[in-house]
Amino acid sequence: MSMQRLRTALALFGAFSLATLLAAAVMVHLAFGTVQADAPGHYWSAAKVLLRTGDPAEATVWKARVGGGLSFAQVETAIRRLTRDMTLHEAATLPLGDDVAAMQGTPWRKLHIYLYCSPLTAARMIEYSDAFAAHLPCRIALLEDAQGALWLYAPNLDLLFEGGRRLPDGVRSAASELRDLVRDLMERAAAGAL
């Protein structure tokens, strides 16, 4: 099977999977009224990205292009300063690009993954559903693409927080605050806010 056929097959499978999830969410909502009103819209947005790109990973993330003229180090400094001002605690930084270069013995693109956590928000989410543990901690990736442009990536938290039944009020408010912090951090870091 050629690579193009494989990509097409995977894109079709992904589109079918997202369409099935969307249909299931709508049916559950209609049958039980438990799915949040915004859920189908979030799944539809993801499905449109999947159909346009053929890439399921692209369909489930937020991304922001870093402003021209900013260096990797400047954006990294912005991320660290911004998180210090927010209620996010730095859990770790993974310099994956450096690790790949060291293992290959040749230069590779810059890629750092920053892991952050809001412990009290994490506790609320896990008290609601143990499965939230798999999504901890929050992560933001700073990546140099193949053309040398810098991008910030983070998981699309709208799908996680609003893609099913309504979260209890305390969990919902904490999740909304966390989602807003991550989006704000990405936008400000992409602009080099120092």
From TrEMBL:
<feature type="domain" description="DUF302">
    <location>
        <begin position="102"/>
        <end position="155"/>
    </location>
</feature>
<dbReference type="InterPro" id="IPR005180">
    <property type="entry name" value="DUF302"/>
</dbReference>
<protein>
    <recommendedName>
        <fullName>DUF302 domain-containing protein</fullName>
    </recommendedName>
</protein>
<dbReference type="InterPro" id="IPR035923">
    <property type="entry name" value="TT1751-like_sf"/>
</dbReference>
<dbReference type="Pfam" id="PF03625">
    <property type="entry name" value="DUF302"/>
</dbReference>
